[in-house]
């Protein structure tokens, strides 16, 4: 039981760190629907139900135990993008509703867009299934944000003590981030470096943490890249640093070879 509690705590730490990193990723975020047609589709209950059922197989018929088991990697497709945008819109609508009484809050959604999501927000099971589907089908933003959105499933006590679900969540978080990094998303390397540095969702490995920090430093555009790399290098000896650079070269070779 103690081990399970530690694992669940690690899951929540990663989810919170994902929240802190969202501002970096949102630089390339896709705008919310803003045309009349897009808004009507997003706010129409029947259309939304049809879209959810078609974009995320099994979403509307979720079993008693969610499955985080990832299949093979798929190229990004339109359904994955639309599914991710539904999940993100759902979150933005709930944030705007809860912060509506806060002075100075600038909304990112409209009443028309959110009216049905306010009446019937996506359940945590629907969010979990949708974000997993989008990430599996190649949506890079879903792969980056998977840990944040999928962690909601563990708000249910039964799920929080399910070792198979926890294991799949941990493995998928790392796998999706690796896929995003190979596809050219440098922010994925930041998440992976933190995971290996802190031992959350994967065994602690300071050399791998340094390798991902090195990959981020070489490919990222943030002015904090150098300090991030120096922090990852702290405490490593010369042999470990050389090994980390070799691993970083391998990561970047995979990135270059990615279609």
How is this fold's topology laid out?
Blueprint: H1 2-25, H2 36-43, H3 45-55, H4 78-98, H5 111-119, H6 124-136, H7 140-150, H8 157-160, H9 163-182, H10 187-198, H11 206-219, H12 225-233, H13 238-257
Helix pairs in contact: 1-7, 2-5, 3-4, 4-5, 4-6, 6-7, 7-9, 9-10, 10-11, 11-12, 11-13
Region (Disordered): 26-79
Protein name: Sel1 repeat family protein
Signal peptide: 1-20
Name the structural class. mainly alpha
Choose one word for the global shape: elongated
Q: Beta-strand level of the residues, as a percent range?
A: under 5%
| Annotation field: number of helices | 13
**pLDDT average, as an integer?**
80
CATH class: Mainly Alpha
Question: In CATH terms, what is the architecture?
Answer: Alpha Horseshoe
- Counting structural domains, the number is 1
């Amino acid at each position: 039981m103690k081990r399970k509690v530690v694992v669940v705590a690690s899951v929540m730490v990663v989810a919170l760190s994902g929240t802190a990193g969202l501002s970096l990723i949102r630089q390339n975020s896709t705008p919310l629907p803003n045309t009349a047609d897009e808004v009507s589709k997003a706010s129409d209950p029947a259309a939304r139900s049809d879209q959810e059922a078609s974009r995320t197989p099994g979403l509307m018929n979720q079993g008693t135990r969610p499955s985080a088991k990832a299949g093979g990697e798929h190229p990004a497709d339109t359904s994955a993008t639309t599914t991710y945008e539904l999940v993100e819109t759902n979150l933005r609508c709930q944030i705007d509703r809860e912060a509506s009484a806060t002075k100075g809050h600038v909304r990112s959604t409209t009443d028309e867009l959110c009216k049905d999501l306010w009446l019937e927000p996506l359940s945590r099971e629907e969010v979990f299934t949708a974000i997993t589907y989008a990430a599996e089908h190649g949506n890079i933003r879903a792969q980056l944000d998977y840990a944040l959105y999928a962690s909601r499933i563990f708000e249910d006590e039964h799920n929080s003590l399910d070792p198979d679900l926890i294991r799949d969540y941990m493995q998928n978080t790392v796998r999706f981030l690796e896929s995003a990094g190979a596809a050219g998303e440098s922010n994925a390397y930041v998440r992976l470096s933190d995971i290996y540095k802190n031992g959350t969702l994967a065994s602690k490995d300071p050399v791998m943490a340094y390798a991902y920090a090195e990959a981020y430093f070489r490919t990222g555009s943030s002015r904090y890249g150098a300090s991030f790399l120096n922090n990852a290098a702290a405490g490593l000896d010369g042999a470990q640093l050389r090994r980390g650079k070799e691993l970083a070269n391998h990561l970047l070779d995979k990135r270059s070879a990615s279609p």
